[in-house]
Amino acid sequence: MGDVSDSTYSDPRVALNRIYTKTGDSGQTSLSGGQRVPKDAARIEAYGTVDELSAFVGLAWVSCGELSAQAPRLGELSKILRRVQHELFNLGSILSTLPADVHPKQARITEIECQQLEQEIDQMNSELEPLRSFVLPGGTRVNAELNAARTICRRAERILVGVAREEEVPAEAIRYLNRLSDALFVWSRWVNHVLGVPEVLWEPNQAASGRV
């Protein structure tokens, strides 16, 4: 499940002629290998949350595109976010497949994806001022969207850690989600930096009880 010598994965074999099949009406769904499992099974929850994460990354990607004329450097992040969406689908592919059913050329997450995120974290973080307080989501819409994606990524990671206690899960999958949540945090700060918008710092005394 680690790095692959031949990085070419099999093309998707998908034919969505019918959107509803009624096969899930009883509360079960199928893994890639054909096994029927409850829709609330932990493995289903894991890759379903990864799918949710991809949707929120897509929102941030759209926002970056809308702001690219104002801040051309956001194009750098747009390319990364689009790649991450493909990686999240690869992650969903491997999570929806029991280890015994994984094909040699099936899409997956490897150390290469983890290392790429680390490089991007270091590069963008080098442009940012050191944090003197925790920061709150906001300042710009894309910052808030990236923070929403970050929290979903953390949830996906927590769910997958739970799955790994009961079933075999690729170590790279958990590591990738861990790195991605850190990346989303750095990217959220970086977009405000590029847009020239101050970060929203946590001030405990801004609470109602701190003002009395």
pLDDT < 50 runs, ≥5 residues: none
| Backbone structural class | mainly alpha
**Strand order, largest beta sheet:** 1-2
Count helical runs.
Answer: 5
Helix content: 40-55%
Question: Which homologous superfamily in CATH is the superfamily?
Answer: Cobalamin adenosyltransferase-like
What top-tier CATH class fits best? Mainly Alpha
In the CATH hierarchy, the third-tier topology is known as Hypothetical Protein Ta1238, Chain: A
How many domains make up the coordinates?
A: 1
Separation of termini?
Answer: 57 Å
In total, the number of strands is: 4
Describe the structure.
With 212 residues, this protein is mainly alpha-helical. It has a single domain (39-200), classed as Cobalamin adenosyltransferase-like (Hypothetical Protein Ta1238, Chain: A), CATH 1.20.1200.10. It contains five helices and four strands, in the order ββαααβααβ. It has helices at residues 42-67, 74-95, 111-125, 141-166, 171-195, and strands spanning 28-30, 36-38, 135-136, 200-201. The strands form two sheets. It has a two-stranded antiparallel ribbon with strand order 1-2. Strands 3-4 form a two-stranded antiparallel ribbon. The mean pLDDT is 86.
